Amino acid sequence: MLSKLCIAFALAAALAASSAAAAPPSAPPKKETEEPADAAKGLPAEVATAHTMTMRGEKVSFVARAGAVRLRDGKTGAPRVDVAFVSYERADADAATRPIAFVFNGGPGASSAWLSLGGISPWRLALGSLPPSPSAPPVVVDNAESWLPFVDLVFVDPPGTGFSKFLTEDEEARKSFFSTKGDADALAVVLRKWLAAHRRIASPKFLVGESYGGFRAVEVLHALRERESVGVEGLVLISPALDFGWLDGEHNILALAGRLPSYAAVTREARRRADLADVEAYASGEFVVDLLKGVRDEEAMRRLETNVARFTGLDPRVVAEEGGRIELKTFLRDRKRAQREVASAYDGEVVGFDPRPFSRESRWPDPVLDGLRAPLGAAMARVTLDKLQWPVGDARYEILNDRVAHDWDFGQGGRAEAEAVSTLRDELALDRRLEVTIAHGLADLVTPYFVSQLLIDQLPVFGATSRVKLVTTPGGHMAYLRDDARKLLRDAARAAIERK
């Protein structure tokens, strides 16, 4: 996901299982391409455990592994970082034909626990109603909607997140990982080394990324092909941030057009994209035209104010004050201002109390993002020690590292000009087998679904429109937190991986 710090900048600015069976591995295979982690300094050696679980009536036996891939300085060979991973592999499948997906979140600075225990690993954090309570006990339950029945899963925590551990005090060496290119290059090496060490080079490979993880997945795919001789068959991008310029309404009016349907989705509590056809047509048509006419055209301004108030449900006076250009923070606060509540940017339908209801200016912890940090981090620590039996001791699990977001180098032009669409375009043109599924929650106000639709519309067909698909679900940025959306997301991922 996009970190809270990144959101602040923007405000201010899943092949069916093979019938061929293989004997379930009882211990990690010998690793000839990678030396074990230094137990005295690095992360503990890899641990494998066997499990059996029933998922939607299907008995699934699998091996879970927790360990790390060590990255070294290319010139000196000095250890730089141990990159932690957790993998889940079916024990009754042929590894040569069984698909495998590498999963990472975004931020930058977010760990993989959000996707893992949020909705797609064999276990998940049990959540009641939203918003979550930070003090709720971290109850972990079997996940009936896990993707494991149809794809093996490897969750990777980039440097600075999860249990990943730096092995150098060199600040410059550490910062080299905190950049778009350095991150993609490093993760490509991690994935190639993991595939070699676990004899999965021949497996069909997929990348799954959420939020900035969607951006990351595109760049890692490119780095894998170009520098590591590893091909990827497909991408599943969940709430991706593919072009940051399209997320900043202050400097790009198209970002306003991209977010408006999500404002309406929140107001209408829409469950299907079809329920938003009218606002999509307006947002990509008359809305943009009137924005371009500018504030000097009084008739255009009146139309903007009338229509935006109608679609957003906001007080017309508030809409008029902002000239029909509704900032995200305004919508989040004014939607439920009379009730002294504020909405979550990560799911606009979820609200929490406004800590400063009588102040003209207010700031507040996000009801979803901040409410989840403690229970999700605690749940991951519990799974690691109790189920995976990886002896990390009292090490802290970095669920969301704000420092990584703060120090991130997006490259020339900075965050405002960072985009992965150009790379995606090139990779689609080069590889006719590559397919992309993009999934969004309708109520996601951080990376709105319509932004991705507008970006997809700018891509050539490349043989068939089905090569790049957009699917929507109820819910927000982490739509998988909702039971109905988690099922829909699993089905979309299965269709993408089995190519149905």
TrEMBL record:
Specify the domain of life of the species encoding this protein. Answer: Bacteria
Which GO biological process entries does UniProt record here? Answer: proteolysis
Q: Does the keyword Signal apply?
A: yes
The record, for SUPFAM superfamilies, names:
alpha/beta-Hydrolases
Q: Where is the signal peptide?
A: 1-22
Kindly indicate whether the keyword tRNA-binding belongs to this entry: no
- Key words, A-Z: Carboxypeptidase, Glycoprotein, Hydrolase, Protease, Signal
Q: Which Gene3D superfamilies match?
A: alpha/beta hydrolase
InterPro entries linked: AB_hydrolase_fold, Peptidase_S10
* A single GO molecular function term of this UniProt record: serine-type carboxypeptidase activity
- Name of this chain's protein: Peptidase S10
Question: What organism is recorded for this protein?
Answer: Methylosinus trichosporium (strain ATCC 35070 / NCIMB 11131 / UNIQEM 75 / OB3b)
